[in-house]
Amino acid sequence: MTVANSDDLVALLPHRPPFRFVDAVDAYEPGSLIVARYRVRGDEDFLAGHFPANPVLPGVIQLEALAQAGAIAVLADERYAGRLPLFGGVEKVRWRRIVRPGDELVLSVELERLSARGGWGAGDATVDGVLACRARLFFAFADA
To answer: Which residues does 86 contact at the CB level (< 8 Å), separation at least 6?
Structure first.
């Protein structure tokens, strides 16, 4: 795996705060795999209502974080530069651990199949080495 300028890699995402859920990239291979991180700060707007006095990172945000990490691995591949990978579906989703403010999600995505139209990836999100979320992600390309 390659380690590169994390900020440049995160900047490949079309997402911007408050809807960017990747803070840093630790390692990647373009078009193949990525290990990235997202720290749950606690000041995210959606946590105020999910749940008051007991904030829990929503499972759909964990899926979005995995998808964004996978998108970096795709967009780092020159064959897909300038494309826009969009969620097309998810399979085999399981949540195993509650994620709270202060936790850091480690996002590992392995791209299984890529084509000119889209692809599949398998992702794990862990906190302190404990599985929080696992899913298989489908994406389709749109022109950016």
So the answer is: 139, 140, 141, 142
